[in-house]
Design goal:
Organism: Paracoccus spongiarum
CATH class of the largest domain: Alpha Beta
Radius of gyration: 23 Å
Order of helices and strands: HEHEHEHEHHEHEHEHEHHEHHHHHH
Shape: globular
Signal peptide: 1-20
Number of helices: 17
Strand content: 15-25%
Largest sheet: 7 strands, mixed
Domain ABC-type glycine betaine transport system substrate-binding: 28-278
Structural class: alpha/beta
InterPro entries: ABC_choline_sub-bd, ABC_Gly_betaine_transp_sub-bd
Distance between the termini: 44 Å
CATH superfamily of the largest domain: Periplasmic binding protein-like II
CATH topology of the largest domain: D-Maltodextrin-Binding Protein, domain 2
CATH architecture of the largest domain: 3-Layer(aba) Sandwich
Pfam family, one: OpuAC
Length: 309
């Protein structure tokens, strides 16, 4: 009996350094936010769950190009916002480096292309090819998001190549909020801008997505999927956190709700996430299947306590 007890104690002692090493290596999870409300929403959900499990989420606000460089260079651990195919060139670069793993496709049913407001649709614009004939009404401007974003680059390339006769149009780069403020403020003026789903703009603004942009944004009105990326060495070192992220998938209605809380109600992303998680325990249970806290306790219990407390 003494020998058996000693064997158990030796086994436990041997496991302790591994657990300690993993906690030291994985205790902080670093990821980035490009300033898009959809990614802010999903980042907030991930932060609430990670914190409940004993991790410390460290979210840096980085533009898309800088965020990908940070992931490539090991300055961040994962990224929840790899929109495909719009960000294909960044994925190609990461794939060439061979250090990144795709953990999961976390969203389907997304779309991302140019759209017009009601005044633009009333002017007869339903396709990219319709724009140039109405240049004066649109003041020759296409409203984009933050500088450096792949979608802006696609628009600028289209202008530079004089596609659809848009060679003398101007791309106005700003950011998601500034762009939407422009559209809302000038609702009576025809406006063409980047639009996407999921996003509460689809509820707040009467939007017509433009056909004809398959070469620039992909078929099905820029139909897109979103993926979670992580560094391979981080996945190997932190299998518990990686398992959580590989099971964390979202849907368009969920993201619309969360984004509406953030944009329309001024709610903090984590506060919005807590409310959603408390109201959707079955989804949380699926995400946390086989996932523990950082110190090895049942993960689902910890998350339930955090969001219901």
């Amino acid at each position: 009996m003494k020998h058996a007890t000693l064997a158990v104690l030796m086994t436990a002692a041997a496991a302790m350094p591994t657990l300690a090493d993993e906690a030291a290596t994985c205790g902080t999870v670093r990821y980035s936010d490009p300033g898009w409300t959809d990614i802010t929403a999903t980042n907030g959900v991930a932060a609430v769950v990670l914190e409940a499990l004993g991790y410390t989420p460290d979210i840096a606000t980085l533009s898309v190009p800088v965020g990908y460089e940070a992931l490539k260079n090991g300055q961040t651990d994962m990224f929840l916002g790899n929109w495909m195919p719009a960000q294909q060139k960044f994925r190609d670069d990461l794939d060439a480096a061979g250090s990144i793993e795709v953990l999961v496709q976390n969203l389907e049913g997304a779309k991302f292309t140019l759209a017009v407001n009601k005044a633009g649709a009333d002017a007869g614009v339903a396709d990219f090819a319709d724009l140039d004939a109405q240049k004066d009404a649109f003041e020759g401007k296409i409203y984009g998001i933050e500088p450096g974003a792949p979608a802006n680059q696609s628009i600028q390339a289209m202008i530079d190549a004089d596609e659809f006769g848009l060679g003398d149009w101007e791309l106005v780069e700003s950011g998601e909020q500034a762009m939407l403020a422009q559209v809302t403020r000038n609702s009576g003026t025809p406006t063409v801008f980047l639009a996407w789903a999921p996003h509460p703009m689809n509820e707040a603004i009467e939007i017509t997505y433009l056909s004809g942009g398959d070469a620039q944004f992909g078929p099905d009105y820029g139909g897109a999927t979103v993926h979670t990326l992580a560094r391979k060495d981080w996945v190997a070192a932190c299998p518990n956190a990686a398992r959580l992220l590989s099971q964390m998938v979202f849907d368009v209605p969920m993201e619309n709700v969360l984004m509406g809380k953030i944009l329309d109600e001024g709610m903090d992303a984590r506060e919005a996430a807590k409310g959603w998680l408390a109201a959707n325990p079955d989804t949380a249970a699926a995400w946390l299947d086989g996932v523990t806290t950082l110190d090895g306790q049942p993960g689902l219990d910890a998350v339930k306590a955090a969001v219901e407390g």
